[in-house]
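your task:
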Amino acid sequence: MSETVATPKPAIRRGEEIELVLEKFADRGKSLTRVGGYVVFVAGAVPGDRIRAKVFKRKKSFAEARLLEVLEPSPLRTEPRCEYFASCGGCKWQHVDYPAQLDMKRDAVAEALSHQGGFDLEALGIEVRPTLGADETYFYRNKMEFSFSANRWLTDWEIASGEPLDKTFALGLHVPGRFDKVLDLQACYLQSEWSAELVNAVRAFSKENAWDPWDVRKHTGYLRHLVLRTPTHTDEKMVVLVTSREDADRMALFAEFLKRDFPEVTTLVNTINSTPAQTAFGEKMINVFGPGVVHDKLGPHTYEIAANAFFQTNTKQAEKLYEVAAEFADIKPDDLLYDLYCGAGTISLYVAESAEHVVGVELIEEAVANARANAAANGVKNCTFVTGDMLKLFTPEFVEEHGRPDVLIVDPPRAGMHPKVVKQIKRLKPAKLVYVSCNPQTQARDLEQLGDAYRIEAVQPVDLFPHTHHVENVVKLAAT
């Protein structure tokens, strides 16, 4: 007769409420601890917190739990400044002391290099430098996109107030995980106090004139997005009203309102987006008044920024990021430098003075046009900007035409570089490589694929987005 072996009970079950003490930060702003061999992730918790949580997901080796109550707060906790913190997805880390945020971002970079890239940092003598923090952790953004919605999300404290609330109109930011719900923000600490005043005034103006907000489920409504650009180094201000259709009479009324109540607005643009896509871009842009652009500076250069142009949203921290990239590139006067994924040429122009020539490569034609215009406007004559897909363009023929680079700077999108581009870099093998990334996970993957062609010499995280889990990282590499 065979002996029956009891199946061990799982350490935790889905739907179970458990008490946890969080050990460390994890990816995407969560914190984690371990329970009976499981790693448990909890959003909104802080290392050192003792909490009560409810398990809502359980996989083979990890689980996720929802924070129910903080029983004993961590010393790393601080009081969030914003009253919408519990509901809004804009600043998920306002409850974490800022120095601790910087430590976490350095740890996130180190873990990505270790786990995703497979680098033994200690054995290789690689030390991730402390994160370069921001001097201003609030009101640091030069651009914000707010959404209009016919489906307003009510916070717990709004519901508890007992006051009658209009649920059919909202102007603010989306609730995390809800494409159809928007918080009606009366305050926001990301851009400027002036921006918050304008948002509130636009809301009042729109409701007074009975302009209907976009209903994402029915695909109806006139008002879609409000985009504000407030450059750091100039006093210019841009308002972009994104609507579902063209209406000259309404825009004339809106322009009159801005000129009367907000005369500091230097340009107004009406973008038409008649598609279901929830974006602040559209098929047509109408310059209602002003030049249709604003200007900002990065280092010694001034950039023209159109309504739909990309520009780093934290100007002061972008300058720190580019300083690190320039330092790591260690450019000599006779160096030829390639800047891959160059966008509007901000890095190219920032380092151009130090090099003999810079070749910028970018897929998006409009961005290359901006780069050329920025170079011309700043009198920079040693930059060449080329439009094309990196997979097809970055070839031996391209190198033969433009020259073999001494320095390579890459700043790819969040998805990182295509493996074929990595192979092309390995074949080309310039002496110096600087990798700028907004995603340490894909950056670490690409560095691993470079194999033994390069060695890591320095790693520097930079915080462009305080109170979020996002971090920029710059890696200095030398050919082996």
Remarks:
- The chain is about 25% helix and 30% strand.
- The radius of gyration is 25 Å.
